[in-house]
Amino acid sequence: MTVAQSYLRKIDTDNQTQDFKLAVDEKLNQVEKKTNELLSYYEASNQQSHQQWEAHKKLMDGRFKDNDKVIQKYNQSLNLMTKGITSMFFVVAIIALVAFICGPVGELFGVSNWYAWINEEVKTQESAWRYLLLLLYSVPYIIFAFIIWGILKAFDSLK
């Protein structure tokens, strides 16, 4: 009986080993199948995310280009407006200078009397130096030029 029992034990052990191998193989195949499914799902999801990212990137690049065009037009408009306002300032300043020299303010400061004195000196003097007095006519304009220059320097320092 020992031989038969030993033979039966061997068969039982072999069957258990085979059953264990089959069970492990089956589980490993299931794990491998689920891993492959999960991997394919993540690859598809990653590809879809990449496509969406590319579409978003193209959209944002287009908007950046449009935004750059708008900013460029805005800067051009701002430059033209700044030049226009500066030109208007100079026109107003020249009109103010003429009003200062020829108007009642000029009378208050004696500019017209000063011009009359220069004119009288040029007419009555006999030397060549009298023509240098004609340069005094430009003194108010030189003062005005320095005022404008100072304003422009202050304007540049604000930038």
Automatic annotation (TrEMBL):
Keyword entries, A-Z: Membrane, Transmembrane, Transmembrane helix
Transmembrane segments: 88-111, 131-152
Domain of life, per lineage: Bacteria
Protein name: Mobilization protein
